[in-house]
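Researcher: Next sequence.
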Amino acid sequence: MILVTGGAGFIGSNFVLDWLAAADEPVVNLDALTYAGNLENLASLRDDPRHVFVRGDIGDGSLVAQLLHRYQPRAIVHFAAESHVDRSIHGPEDFIQTNIVGSFRLLEAARAYWRRLDDAGKAAFRFLHVSTDEVYGSLGKDDPAFAETNRYEPNSPYSASKAASDHLVRAYHHTYGLPVLTTNCSNNDGPYHCPDKLIPRIIHNARAEKLLPSYGDGQQIRDWLYVADHCSAIRRVLAAGRPGETYNIGGWNEKANLDVVHTLCAMLDELSPRADGRPYREQISFVADRPGHDRRYAIDAGKIERELGWKPAETFASGIRKTVRWYLDHQDWVANVTSGAYREWVGKQYGACS
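Model: Next structure:
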């Protein structure tokens, strides 16, 4: 049995589905079901006894302690986080509460549980903390990619809150001996991604004949990782990672945001062309840049390949094609996610371009 936090979100739900497809080891899934959490992602597990869903907050120490006592998991995989930079700019307090205070309370509950295990249980237990490349700050055009040894220079309330949680995880290992693992990943694409993020937003807006908003000059560079590759990397780190270590997970796919948008437009021209036959790129519109927008992220994933033998199976081209096909094939899911509160948020953030 493992305990997964945030397992109804984008990466968390992909991980839960991937885990149960690969093994019979049950999952207790703790998720507060905020705007990013969606039980529709897990509809295929509705009658699966291997999946136990609990709606709750990682900041509820009493609830977490009860779950640990009842289910006796051998590991905690911690995805739960507020993770949207724009939302952190508009309302940073939620990020402080979830990413810092929530992670602290989860660590405290895990430490108390771990201390009560017998020697074999203590040796086998793992606390795997899923983090982001954004904690490292921004790179110049010719700077080497982020390595695990890079110093932290977070530039947004979101990345600062994740950096704080990373430091707490590290401290609980060095102070208390808790067997922790930390992963820092690059941008993910794939199924079940909340449509307030770049790739699903562009797909949705394009097919709705709306403008395709691109920040600034669109030359912000990100490394892209297909979510199934991220899940396989986490499984590998959980199985063989050294306690106390950090592993960067990336796809070796640096792309400017505008190039990603152009790629999406070209794929949609092929797979779901406009009724009038005109190219989707005509809908691209440039909007004011995000405050403090980091210019470039890039992950050096050499350590996880050298030490654990992991590398991504998908290229950017193969991964994004799978992503586009999934969204085109799951329009009911998209329609449900893009109603109500989501529309209000997008209207606030992107104005007329929404």
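Model: The mean pLDDT is 93. Residues 171 and 333 are 40 Å apart (CA to CA).
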